[in-house]
Amino acid sequence: MHSFVSTSLDRDLALFIVGSSDGVIDGLERVLFEIVADPRIQGLVKPFANITSLSYFGEEEEVLIMLGSIFRIIDLRQNEDRIWFIQLTMYSDADNDWKQVFEYMRDEYGMEETTLFSFGAILCDMDKYDKAGKYYHRLLNSLPEDHPDIEVCYNNLGRIAEKKGDYDSSLAWHYRSLQISLKTDDPDLAESYNSIAIVK
Fold first, then answer.
1. Which domains does the chain possess?
2. Chain-centre distance of CA 145, in angstroms?
3. Which of 50, 53, 157, 163 lies in disulfide reach of 173, CB 3.0 to 4.6 Å?
């Protein structure tokens, strides 16, 4: 899997999206993936996130599955409507075979759990700056005014703007980050100044 997969908890919606056999192009098949992923998953990283509360279409009950998720095929069948159903189960970092993979993700991105921050960090590494920015904006919109992660969001948005060559926006985001750092005696205050210096 090389990108995020948007899924739904609503089976009827998924079947609606699969559509009827009338619109199927020759040589193509309709496929519905049934993914077993326990939200109580234990371990270093939960490789999926329910973003229903952040989605524009809340009724879709959207779940994002992250880059690098690993599945095992449990079952494969075709029903009378000629829809293929592929049942998958998601590996977690508690599975010994994949523990090293998840430890790498934790060490590389500093993730103790899957969050919008971790999605944003991975997208930045993939040079998908517009998409990363959307995650940070979503996070900003969901945080209370005095949340400490707001300063981090501003800083990350400043870095994204810098990567895109939008230096005015980059400075604006970094100044906003700096203002919070100055008010809170943030130990990372020097990093805020450094970010501004890099842009200038």
1. 1-114 (no CATH), 128-200 (1.25.40.10)
2. 23
3. 157
Give the tens place of pLDDT for each residue, 159-200: 899 889 898 898 889 888 888 877 766 666 556 555 565 665
Interatomic CA distance for residues 154 and 178, integer angstroms: 9
Question: Tokens in use for 36?
Answer: 């077993």
Tell which residue, 119, 139, 130, has the closest CA to residue 67. Answer: 119
- Which of 145, 147, 161, 148 is CA-nearest to residue 196? 161
- Exposed (0-12), middle (13-18) or buried (19+): which is 153, by Cβ within 10 Å? buried
CB 62 within 8 A of CB 8: yes
